[in-house]
Design a protein that fits this description.
- By secondary structure, this protein is mostly helical.
- Helices cover 58% and strands 10% of the residues.
- It has helices at residues 7-23, 85-96, 102-123, 126-152, 158-170, 172-175, 178-184, 192-199, 202-223, 230-245; strands at residues 25-27, 31-36, 41-45, 50-52, 55-58, 69-73.
- β4 and β5 form a beta hairpin.
- The protein is elongated.
């Protein structure tokens, strides 16, 4: 038995695959993603993804393309908490610079993943399809202009913004990752745990600290019997105590910022 995939199905599959491919992120073991949400911040550690040739592959929430992401490092052998308030405020200010991207992002997502399949498989209308394609490219143009404006206001590097704007116009599914690409390229020396401790509410921070503690304890267990890692093990033990001491009590009614 042979299965035939129609051109319409291939088109929808290609859009989904392009989006998934472009949204995938490769992280080194001592990196994590700091994500700015609506009134709250979240962190995913590299080890919570899929291991791939000494790196880790993971995806941010695919249904939240408007949320900025920051790829930050942390050092399991050196944890100093709390961090500087200025670095956390800088990240928060940069994350706030993407508010204008939300309307065209969700309009484009609705056009690509809801309206386009409906036009192809339900309406079977060429006129509706043409109107939809015009809407899709209107959204990509809107996002391209916002990307260039973001650089003009000093929030992004101009060369990078021009490159992303061109990608957006050439491939509309890539436009859904515009905010992620701009925020990931933001150069900041901020430490992941220091920034998270400053920006997250008590309960999410406590949960993150426990996850980091589990990662550190596993690594310490793996190197405990290796003499060449004795000094590193001792530094990790000191860092682990600093992490445990940083836990803030999370009240039962704490729902985050």
């Amino acid at each position: 038995m042979y299965f035939t995939i129609t051109t319409e199905v291939q088109m929808v599959l290609a859009i989904c695959l392009f989006y998934l491919y472009d949204a995938a992120l490769a992280l080194q073991p001592e990196q994590g993603l700091l994500r700015a949400g609506r009134g709250q911040w979240r962190v995913r550690l590299a080890s919570e993804g899929f291991e791939l040739r000494r790196n880790w592959l993971l995806w941010p929430p695919l249904w939240l393309p408007h949320q900025p992401l920051y790829k930050l490092r942390w050092n399991p052998a050196h944890i100093a908490l709390p961090g500087e308030q200025a670095a956390a405020r800088s990240l928060a200010a940069h994350a706030a610079s993407f508010k204008a991207f939300a309307p065209p992002l969700y309009l484009l997502a609705a056009a690509l993943f809801i309206a386009l399949p409906a036009a192809l498989f339900v309406l079977h209308s060429e006129q509706a399809l043409l109107m939809l394609l015009a809407l899709i490219y209107l959204c990509t143009l809107w996002l391209s202009l916002l990307t260039l404006r973001h650089a003009r206001l000093g929030h992004s590097e101009r060369g990078l913004a021009r490159s992303i704007a061109l990608q957006i116009m050439l491939c509309p599914p890539f436009a859904l990752n515009a905010v992620r690409k701009l925020s990931l390229a933001h150069g900041t020396p901020a430490d992941l745990l220091q920034s998270a401790e400053r920006l997250m509410a008590a309960r999410p921070w406590s949960e993150l600290a426990q996850r980091v503690q589990a990662v550190m304890e596993q690594e310490m267990q793996e190197i405990a019997e290796l003499p060449e890692y004795a000094q590193h093990h001792a530094r990790m033990q000191t860092a682990l105590e600093a992490l445990k001491a940083s836990h803030r009590p999370a009240p039962a009614d704490d729902q985050g910022l």
